[in-house]
Design goal:
Helix content: 55-70%
CATH topology: Ammonium transporter fold
Oligomer: single chain
Number of domains: 1
Number of strands: 0
Low-confidence stretches: 106-119, 441-458
Shape: globular
Order of helices and strands: HHHHHHHHHHHHHHHHH
Number of helices: 17
Mean pLDDT: 90
CATH class: Mainly Alpha
Radius of gyration: 23 Å
């Protein structure tokens, strides 16, 4: 084969890889978007029935406002090439989409049939779409800690500011090849720091500003609909394959590793959480199974493209057990993190990022991943992971606290005690999730009476 024929063959391979990878990333983007409605049901099922629409609304609102902000300026801040701290405004309104994403233009094919090159594999506008879905779900995660008491108007203002001031800069630091943590060598395949540790730290900050729910911790805040929680978990698990495997930005072997590692760690974490529950409480619960699965999804997110399937089992088991134990912390420190966002997303995200320093292996993606301590790589990678974790958590917590505190001073963020008693659904939206009407007495009438009594006591 002469040089011209070889080049033609390589171009053909690149073209085929580009078409397949573009189709996969568009599908993965849709999968990730489905995670936000899944999260809405996961959270909605865990609150009392008078607050379920309020939780669903907050999550769906994130889809609306962040989608617009991302096009206007969010993407440019996150993935522009202005400097290592701030991406700049070059791509505002999605201008210059014919240009490669900064930092990817010089990447070349590591093997004939595989590629990690955004510039050569998928169009920049497809990358915009994929990263949008990450920007949407991250502020939605915060709502679990603030359940039952956040005014919708204040929430809307908060998400608008937070997405641009906190999420987009952190995404630039870690995800963009131009970001300072990326250049330091910190590894975060799909968002353990950018999404989960970031949202977890922010959730704690907002919960501190809002204060405790009326009656917490003495009053029972039992989930009103556990089937909703499990439905949400299933949607999250399904969508997470796009979240993690799609983050390879190509349809190749490494995306397959990310897919398998995601499922394996999630399953292991569910088992780890249930084991802790059984030993600690005497019963393994459906809520524990759902929470354990989500903890595993969170922990494997930063690591799925850097560890082996065996490593994913270890990460899952550790995350499931540790996150289950971490749920007790909020009661001891007096922070009303309503749905354990800190225990699952902050702790799980930090764990996953740090455990790359132990379980990371260059065998998964030679040339793109580094050996951790257990593979003879020393502690250098762990140090880089720790730097990323500390930087992201500290900035997110401090910046979020300032934003929430300022909004609360200007526009009171929390419902009044009477409004909180009545519930978010009717007070904020003039609706109720469940309308039970009597069609002639019998069980329907009794159900209506029982529901009314339960809400009055809640």
């Amino acid at each position: 084969m002469n040089p011209d024929q070889l080049k033609e063959l390589q171009n053909g391979i690149a073209s085929a890889a580009g078409v397949g990878s573009t189709a996969w990333i568009l599908a993965a983007s849709a999968l990730v978007l489905l995670m936000t409605p899944g999260l809405a049901f996961f959270y909605g099922g865990m609150v009392r029935s008078k607050n379920v629409l309020g939780m669903l609304m907050q999550n769906f609102f994130c889809i609306g406002v962040v989608s617009v902000l991302w096009v206007l300026i969010g993407y440019s801040i996150a993935f522009g090439g202005s400097n290592q701290i701030f991406g700049g405004f070059h791509f505002a309104l999605l201008n210059h989409m014919s240009e490669a994403v900064p930092g990817y233009a010089e990447v070349t094919f590591p093997a004939p049939y595989e590629s990690n090159s955004l510039a050569q594999v998928i169009p920049p506008i497809v990358f915009v779409a994929f990263q949008l879905m990450f920007a949407i779900i991250t502020p939605a995660l915060i709502t679990g800690a603030t359940a039952d008491r956040w005014k919708f108007g204040a929430f809307a203002v908060f998400v608008t500011i937070w997405s641009l001031v906190v999420y987009s800069p952190i995404a630039h630091w870690v995800f963009s090849p131009e970001g300072w943590l990326f250049k330091k060598g910190a590894e975060d395949f799909a968002g353990g720091t950018v999404v989960h540790a970031n949202a977890g730290a922010a959730a704690i900050a907002v919960a501190l500003v809002l204060g405790r729910r009326k009656g917490w911790p003495g009053t029972s805040f039992r989930p009103h609909n556990l089937p909703f929680v499990l439905l949400g978990t299933g949607l999250l698990w399904f969508g997470w394959f796009g979240f993690n495997a799609g983050s390879e930005l190509a349809a190749d072997t490494r995306s397959g590793f990310a897919f398998v590692n995601t499922n394996t760690a999630t399953a292991a974490a569910m088992l780890g959480w249930l084991f802790v529950e059984k030993i600690r409480d005497g019963k393994a619960t459906t809520l524990g199974a759902a929470s354990g699965a989500v903890a595993g999804l969170v922990a494997i997110t930063p690591a799925c493209g850097f560890v082996s399937p065996a490593g994913s089992i270890a990460i899952g088991l550790i995350a499931g057990a540790v996150c289950a134990l971490a749920t007790a912390i909020k009661g001891k420190v007096g922070i009303d993190d309503a749905l354990d966002v800190g225990a699952v997303h902050l702790v799980g995200g930090v764990l996953g990022a740090l455990l790359i320093g132990f379980f990371g292996t260059g065998d998964v993606a030679p040339g793109y991943s580094v050996d951790g301590i257990f593979y003879g790589g020393g502690a250098s990678l762990l140090g880089k992971q720790a730097l990323a974790v500390v930087s992201v958590v500290a900035y997110s917590f401090v910046a979020t606290f300032i934003i929430a505190f300022a909004i609360d001073k200007i526009y009171k963020m929390r419902l009044s005690p009477d409004e909180e008693q009545e519930g978010m659904d009717f007070v904020l939206h003039g609706e109720t999730a469940y309308e039970f009407t009597s069609l002639g007495g019998g069980s329907a009438s009794l159900l209506s009476t029982a529901t009314t009594t339960e809400e009055g006591q809640a």
